[in-house]
Amino acid sequence: MTAVVRTEGLTKFYGDRRGLEDLDLEIRPGEVFGYLGPNGAGKTTTIRLILDVIRPTRGRVTVLGTDPRDARVRARIGYLPGELALEGRERARDYLAFLGGVRGGVSRERIDALAERLEADLSAPMGRLSKGNKQKVGLIQAFMHEPEFLILDEPTSGLDPLVQQEFLAMVREVRASGRTVLMSSHVLAEVENVSDRVGIVRAGRLVAVEDIAALREKAVRLVEFHFDAPVPREAFEGLAGVRDLRVEGASVRCTIDGRPDALVKAAARFTVVHMVSAEPDLEEIFLTYYSEEGGHHARAGV
Amino acid sequence: MPVLVSKSLRDYRRSLVGWTVGITAFFALYLSFYPSITKDPELYGRAALAKFPGAMRDLMGGLEDFTSGVGYLHSLVYQLFGPMLFVVCAAILGNRALAQPEESGTLELTVTLPVDRRRLVFERFAALALGLLGLAVVTFLAVWALSSAVDMNVAFDRILAGHTGILLLSLLFGTLALAVGAATGRRGIAMAVVGVVAVGGYVVESMGRNVDAISWLRWISPFHYYLDGRPLYQGFPTGDYLVLAGATVVLLLTAILAFDRRDVGV
């Protein structure tokens, strides 16, 4: 099967400023690809290149087997911009009908069903919608024509947790029907539950592409245990994967690399009154990459 | 009607209705003064000439025959105020085609629709042209009806010629705004260019009649191809109007080529 997206040496400079450099990326049919990186790393630049909003400085990109400059291919794509602008007195319902019409027709029932699912208000003038409601309208327009390929730039920003769950369910349904999703985020937690693979981009360069399960094993996690009585430091020293150990009276703090198994078993010998395990944050995963295999990238990424 | 054209016209609707009502009211107000002018043409004719110094009179189009129906209509509607009101309206609509949505961010989703960029520019131009046509038709009928009501004795086809000129002139400036917006994505730049070309062009054309040093510049002023043929007195200046239409086509092609090759929203 041909790749949904294939880029070769894709590079974009804005004047002297690098947006993206030498991106070689393949997104396979039927997968959910999470595209991670801090703000300004090049995620939106990549997405805009794929959609022909901006043109590459050099390199090539093909989407669904064709050049993105062919406007027809865009009817098969659903796109949620990272900074969605909706304004004016027009009602969301009318705007959605317009977008659906240009993309080949979307039934009113389909729009209503999605609106109900996300609890979106389609009757108010778009300029007066809250950020969350605008984002819902953006999601509806991206999903409504059942595109083969969905490109979602920071899709969960502004959504409350319940709607986020509904959105993730919609993404899973898209994958179940064999269609492909590219979604970007700066928070791993947002994409890790639905993504098959993630790509990590930093300072305009693709640092790694990983299966999500493999990435989770690499994630560095900050863990804290609080016990009912002071614990001896020796009990926690030398455990597999444990780093930066600090034992202060009845509390233990450390970071763990990979599986927490050894640490949990060591802690289980004492009486645990409280434990905190921070979600691995992307920044720390980056640091892991830079300290281990990152030397090469760090040099190239200057 | 292509869906992008109808969508743009829907977006422009409120603005167009506002301009139509405003311009019609403006014309109606001035035409309603005409009967009192005809009661004492000597007084008002002299007053108009005496009130303004020579250069100022040139700017107002001469004011020579201010008290005749055609002179009054020309001086107050077709010389300066009518074209300028239309030009401002056209520049605002021309900016709404690309530059304004690009600055506000709404253009991003539009360019990811399965519509070729060149077609997008063309359809936005078509909406601009149709919008201005609507404005021109309504205000034309209003001027014709009012001028008949106050017995100005200006022939229907002369008013039509003047109004056609205003339409072509404003379409040229609207397309100029659209083209600058298509090339730069900045509506401030587009407005500045339209402002300089419109005000500069008008001054050059009106003053240049009597100032040799700048008279050669009249050939590049868009207003020259509207005012010089004196459509209200002499009917359609066909050649001049073709120049306006041709320049509009050139600007449209420039806009299409410029927009097709550049990054949007950066």
Describe this structure as you would to a colleague.
The complex is a heterodimer of chains A (302) and B (266). With 302 residues, chain A is α/β, with parallel strands linked by helices. Chain A has helices at residues 43-50, 92-102, 108-118, 131-143, 161-176, 188-192, 212-218, 261-267, 282-291, 294-300; strands at 5-14, 17-27, 32-36, 58-63, 77-80, 149-153, 180-185, 197-202, 205-211, 220-227, 242-248, 251-257, 272-277. Mean pLDDT of chain A is 87; it is low at 293-302. Chain B has helices spanning 3-32, 34-39, 41-51, 54-59, 69-79, 81-97, 99-104, 107-111, 117-149, 156-184, 187-208, 212-215, 224-227, 231-234, 238-260. Chain B is mainly α and 266 residues long. Chain B has one domain. Chain A: This is ABC transporter.
Question: What secondary-structure arrangement, pairings included, does this model have?
Answer:
The complex is a heterodimer of chains A (302) and B (266).
Chain A lengths: L4 E10 L2 E11 L4 E5 L6 H8 L7 E6 L13 E4 L11 H11 L5 H11 L12 H13 L5 E5 L7 H16 L3 E6 L2 H5 L4 E6 L2 E7 H7 L1 E8 L14 E7 L2 E7 L3 H7 L4 E6 L4 H10 L2 H7 L2
Parallel strand pairs in A: 3-7, 3-8, 5-6, 6-7
Antiparallel strand pairs in A: 1-2, 1-4, 8-9, 10-12, 10-13, 11-12
Chain B lengths: L2 H30 L1 H6 L1 H11 L2 H6 L9 H11 L1 H17 L1 H6 L2 H5 L5 H33 L6 H29 L2 H22 L3 H4 L8 H4 L3 H4 L3 H23 L6
Helix pairs in contact in B: 1-6, 1-9, 6-9, 6-10, 6-11, 9-10, 9-15, 10-11, 10-15
